[in-house]
Design goal:
18 helices, binds uridine-5'-diphosphate, 455 residues, 6-stranded parallel sheet, 7-stranded parallel sheet, alpha/beta
């Protein structure tokens, strides 16, 4: 069996967004550890560093993006451009990638957002597996976009925000995915297209686990007549902090770990809104004062470009950190997995990107949920109302609300229950990867299905 697998090479194509690149590289490691040779195809924009992955081959697909276009400010527009511009170059290079490989290539694996790869794979008669880097519950909502539009839930109307979405309890209209793009229809069109091309694929791999999203996964199996492989959480299959685990496009500032070492257990609020979300300067100040007034220690990631029209740190009132006497620590980018697994961290104030949500669940860290766009609103609703491992920041982003919500999660009446729920899910996330666990078994079937493509 082992010998047979070593005779195969897999081509995996990554999206250049951090939240997509990380799970794809993790999946590549998982499949490498199962004996496959790996070639990563990537755009020139945000290309991964090959030196960090000496055991993989890399192949750049010219994306034709101008300096202005190569930006994550409008991730939908960027994804549309990649889907258009990379099609021809991929078609050009695929014959040589296939013929130059000393091993046969049983299939092509690509991020769901890169829907342009499906018709190309069809042309080359190459089975395509899809990696969906988000959760299954949010995907189910994406797959129902036409129905939600037909029923008038989409586009989201301000006057209906509190209305329940009857087909998707406990979601309300305000929890439905939306995205501010230069073209208001672009997000809807992109989602419908990538769902269609998922349906045309040979199977979908999910960075989730059966016990977390069983209802959505069951429904997806009914609605899509395709193999569905929930084999996550990916990052917990790799050693924390290892080169293979870290697929960061920015350099993490590890000095925060020594600061965390000095804090009491479960005392620190870790604040990070991922790699794309941006806030206004006014919102930034409300966060700062809310954190200061909460009296809890905090570790805050202020990513360059994450505050619109401002460099960030200089927007803070002068002497802000100094006046807190060491209670606050700010970095530009954190080693997030290490931070979340640190015993000092008591809560994660997150935007509920799927990776952050999963990373928090895996460490049993309660969440303060503040979703921005796309699937984040659905993830936040599940975290707060289904898994009950967090609290949503309600209403406006305002310092009093921030202080109240932090207290609720850290020391309020319901805090223990939230923490217990989080620890319970942490156990499940770990158990599913062990021999006989759900993700363990789905990975076995994924590997054998890949090998069956080659025979
Ligand atoms: N991340 C990190 N350091 C930070 C902030 C984020 O390593 O300071 C990582 C985080 O661990 C996660 C990814 O960036 O794996 C963000 O992905 P997510 O899906 O949460 O959100 P997105 O960036 O796609 O909005």
């Amino acid at each position: 069996m082992e010998e047979e697998k070593k005779q195969h090479r897999l081509l995996l194509m990554a999206s250049p967004l951090q939240g997509h690149m990380t799970p794809l590289l993790h999946l590549a490691h998982i499949l490498f550890s199962k004996g496959f040779s790996i070639t990563i195809l990537h755009t020139l924009f945000n290309s991964p560093d090959p030196d960090s992955y000496p055991h993989f081959s890399f192949h750049a697909i010219p994306d034709g993006l101008s300096e202005a276009e190569a930006s994550t400010l409008d991730a939908v527009h960027l994804t549309d451009l990649i889907n258009t511009r990379c099609a021809h170059p991929l078609k050009e290079c695929l014959p040589s990638l296939l013929s130059d490989s000393p091993q046969p290539v049983p299939c092509f694996i690509s991020d769901a957002a890169l829907h342009f790869t499906q018709p190309i794979c069809d042309e080359f008669k190459l089975p395509r597996l899809v990696l969906r880097t988000g959760g299954a519950s949010s995907f189910l909502v994406f797959a129902s976009f036409p129905l939600l539009r037909e029923k008038g839930y989409l586009p989201v109307q301000e006057s209906r925000l509190e209305e329940p979405v009857v087909d998707f309890p406990p979601l309300k209209v305000k929890d439905l995915p939306k995205f501010q793009s230069q073209d208001p229809e672009a997000f809807y069109k992109l989602v419908c297209r990538f769902v269609e091309e998922c349906k045309a694929s040979s199977g979908v791999i999910w960075n989730t686990f059966e016990e977390l999203e069983s209802a959505a996964l069951t429904k997806l199996r009914q609605d899509f007549s395709l193999p569905i492989y929930p084999i996550g959480p990916f990052h917990k299959r790799l050693p924390t902090g290892s080169a293979s685990s870290s697929a960061s496009l920015l350099t993490p500032d590890k000095s925060c770990i020594s600061w965390l070492d000095k804090q009491e257990h479960n005392s620190v609020v870790y604040v990070s809104f991922g790699s794309i979300a941006a806030i206004s300067e006014a919102e930034f100040l409300e966060i700062a004062w809310g954190l200061a007034n909460s009296q809890q220690p905090f570790l805050w990631v202020i990513r360059p470009g994450s505050i619109r029209d401002s460099e960030g740190l200089e927007a803070l009132p002068s002497g802000f950190l100094e006046n807190l006497g060491g209670r606050g620590y700010i970095v530009k980018w954190a080693p997030q997995e290490q931070v979340l697994s640190h015993p000092a961290v008591g809560a994660f104030w997150t935007h509920n990107g799927w990776n952050s949500t999963l990373e928090s669940l895996c460490e049993g860290v309660p969440m303060i949920c503040m979703p921005f766009f796309a699937d984040q609103k659905v993830n936040a609703k599940y975290a707060s109302s289904v898994w009950k491992v967090g609290v949503q920041l309600q209403n406006k982003l305002e310092r009093g609300e921030v202080e109240k919500t932090i207290k609720k999660v850290m020391v309020g009446d319901g805090a223990k229950e939230i923490r217990d729920n989080a620890l319970n899910l942490k156990e499940k996330a770990s158990a599913c990867l062990k021999e006989g666990g759900s993700s363990y078994c789905f990975l076995d079937s994924l590997v054998s299905d890949i090998l069956s493509f080659a025979s």
